[in-house]
Amino acid sequence: MILSKILAKFFAKHPELLWNIRSFKHFKHTIDFDNPRNLYEFIAASALKNGNNEMWIKLADKYAVRDYVKETIGEEYLIPLLGKWNSPDEIDFDALPDKFVLKTNNSCTTNIMVKDKKNIDVESVKKKLAKWLEYPYGALTAQPHYTHIKPCIIAEQFMEQGEGFISLVDYKFYCANGEICWISVISERKPGMHLCPAITFDSDWNRRADVTRQDMLTDKDFPKPECFEELKRMVLKYAKLFDFIRIDFYVINGKPYFGEFTFTPNVIDQLSPKGMNFMFDMLKNK
């Protein structure tokens, strides 16, 4: 953690360097922040430009965003909240149900899925949460808006998809210029995973394997959700507010539940160059 904090201080002052390192790894060139040449560069430039954007900060905060969703589309689309704490020592585990999910509000993949409370090591869970709260995620990922989020821990109701799924089915709506471009669907996420099997659909629910990262392509079949039009209405309500955003929802027992807003998604994890180029062309033609 000491090394992480030292690196965080450096990259907090030079986030463009970290973006350039990653760009060189993927594309063998650095980023033109003034005139982005692809979607990755557009996202990098947006991240630096919006480091102090109050809306970005609020909507990236997994706790604060709940009020925004409640006000804009309704509390019924939120996974029920069981508690919120500033420190792991504040958590009353005895008061929590047998199943629940713990997560921190200011980073990615910091979730603990508790399926049976009797089987967890409470002290180990507390140590993991404390480490996550201290981790300078925003600085070490060159996403400055995350550095302004006050870290906390939340507990949510444990939601189950049903037989045949190892995780919830996650519908990730990529939006550009107020329109839905692609919907990446993930159902095989394991704890802490960034790379997950996926398949992508267009806004009319046509399967588009060609815009999915080929080594991540799943052979699972996903019928169009019965609530698909309702999902699109909610997504478009938010999409029109931003040049580019990814909006995630779950569908559980036919009902939509809000997942998260992401302004700086790692599009390389799920989309092929063709899928990314299509969105970048939409952004250029605004």
Going by helix content, strand content and strand pairing, the class is alpha+beta
How big a fraction of the residues is strand?
A: 15-25%
**What about the largest sheet?**
5 strands, antiparallel
Oligomer: single chain
Outline type: globular
State the end-to-end CA separation. Answer: 43 Å
**Rounded Rg:** 19 Å
The mean pLDDT is 94
Q: Helical element count?
A: 9
SSE arrangement, N to C: HHHHHEEEHHEEEEHEEH
Strand order of the largest sheet: 7-6-5-8-9
The low-confidence runs, each spanning 5 or more residues with pLDDT under 50, are none
- Percent helix, as a range, is 25-40%
Count of beta strands: 9
Secondary-structure topology with pairs:
Elements: H1 2-13, H2 15-27, H3 39-49, H4 54-60, H5 65-72, E1 81-85, E2 100-104, E3 111-114, H6 122-134, H7 137-140, E4 153-157, E5 170-176, E6 179-186, E7 198-201, H8 228-239, E8 244-252, E9 255-262, H9 273-284
Antiparallel strand pairs: 1-4, 2-3, 2-4, 5-6, 5-8, 6-7, 8-9
Helix pairs in contact: 1-2, 2-3
What is this entry, summarized?
The chain has 286 residues and is α+β, with helices and mostly antiparallel strands. Helices cover 32% and strands 19% of the residues.
